[in-house]
Design brief:
It contains 13 helices and 11 strands. The protein is of the alpha/beta class. The chain folds into 2 domains: 196 residues, 2-enoyl-CoA Hydratase, Chain A, domain 1; 108 residues, no CATH class. Strands 1-2-3-4-5-7-9 form a 7-stranded mixed β-sheet, with helices on both faces. A hairpin with a 3-residue loop joins strand 1 and strand 2. Helix 6 runs antiparallel to helix 7. The longest helix has 19 residues. The radius of gyration is 21 Å and the shape is globular. The N and C termini lie far apart (61 Å).
Length: 356
């Protein structure tokens, strides 16, 4: 071949330009303005109009120390210098969850203080997202699992791509959600009860976590309680970040104010614990749960009822911080189980869950 194209092996260099205004907004923003900050796990990007974005870019967008550091930096920077924060990116998955390889290594070496610090750091980050003085809009696409789902649960609003597969899947690796995900489903069960009996809604939330249910779409995520009626869905994935930014600016125009802390979260105590434990026992007897599934289920039941029966003998109220402590205690306890480590190792090796 001779002429201008001689020796070429590709049609273009660099990223493909957006097909129309408002598409691939994050890509366009990075081409226009230098990245605000960056580490190995995530970047801060100025989207314009005083809206900041956190973009993940670790492998499978797994959540590790670098990602958590940049999320906290994003909340802090947006609170000082911007009017809103968007968390999302233009390639799926949104996040496959926590860095399991690091967790397995720490657990095998018995570094419980390190694991405790990791969980505390992630809990502090999700709570910072929830109570930020500026609206935080999370824009998931593709997989939003485990810790990725917990980030969504703490957002002021979620703007999800239609093809978003969201779920709290920690049971599959022998654990429970401990970044505030269990706490948030308790809060949502109470909200659905609207002052009435929350037990049916709490039982649904318990089964959603216990069976590691993942939505088949963003619309299905509403049915499972991962998304609320106030959350939005974007049909064109290329518009996702633009829609999230528009939602953020709309929240600012509405006069956004951070939600007040919730010092009085209703929990059911011993009665709810007994009901949930009975469900675990019957499912185990019926063969729907393995031995370790039952162990995890019992740990989850204690968190969702507010603690052991002797600690909370009747229906009462507790703080969000108390529920976070219960989550963390259960998570650490399960990290010490041999079968949990077997599940994590199997998942890392095969990408599939182990029923043991």
């Amino acid at each position: 071949m001779t002429g201008p194209g001689a020796g070429r092996t590709r049609w273009r260099d660099g990223a493909l330009a957006p097909a129309a205004p408002g598409l691939l907004l994050l890509q366009e923003a990075k081409s226009r303005t230098p990245v605000v900050a960056r580490n190995a796990g995530a970047s801060l990007v100025d989207l314009g109009d005083d809206v900041l974005a956190v973009e993940f870019h670790s492998k499978m967008n797994a959540i590790g120390a670098d990602t958590i550091t940049m999320l906290r930096a994003g909340v802090d920077r947006a609170s000082r210098d911007f009017v809103a924060l968007v968390i999302g990116h233009e390639q799926d998955p949104f996040s496959a969850g926590a860095n399991l390889a690091l967790l397995l290594m720490e657990a095998q070496e018995g570094n419980w203080e390190e694991i405790d610090a990791m969980v505390r750091g992630f809990q502090a980050t999700t709570m910072a997202i929830k109570y930020a003085p500026v609206p935080v809009i999370v824009a998931p696409a593709g997989l939003a699992l485990g810790g990725g789902c917990e980030i969504c649960l703490h957002a002021d609003r979620v703007q999800a791509a239609a093809e978003t597969y969201i779920g709290l899947v920690e049971v599959g690796v022998g654990l429970i959600p401990a970044g505030g995900g269990t706490k948030e489903l308790i809060l949502r069960a109470n909200a659905r009860a609207a002052g009435g009996d929350a037990q049916p809604f709490l039982r649904q939330a318990f089964e959603t976590i216990g069976f590691a249910r993942v939505s088949t779409s963003a619309a299905d995520a509403r049915r499972l309680g991962y998304l609320r009626d106030v959350d939005g869905i974007t049909m064109n994935g290329d518009r996702l970040i633009a829609d999230a930014k528009a939602r953020a600016l709309a929240r600012v125009a509405e006069g956004y104010a951070a939600p007040p802390p919730q010092p009085a979260v209703a929990v059911g105590g011993a009665d709810v614990l007994a009901t949930l434990l009975l469900g675990v026992h019957l499912a185990h007897r019926a063969g729907r749960l393995s031995d370790h599934d039952a162990t995890i289920g019992r740990a989850l039941a204690r968190v969702m009822s507010g603690g052991a029966a002797g600690d909370v003998p009747h229906r009462t109220t507790v703080s969000e911080g108390y529920l976070l402590d219960l989550e963390r205690e259960a998570f650490l306890s399960l990290c010490g189980e041999r079968r949990t480590l077997e599940r994590i190792a199997h998942t890392l090796k095969t990408g599939k869950s182990l029923r043991n």
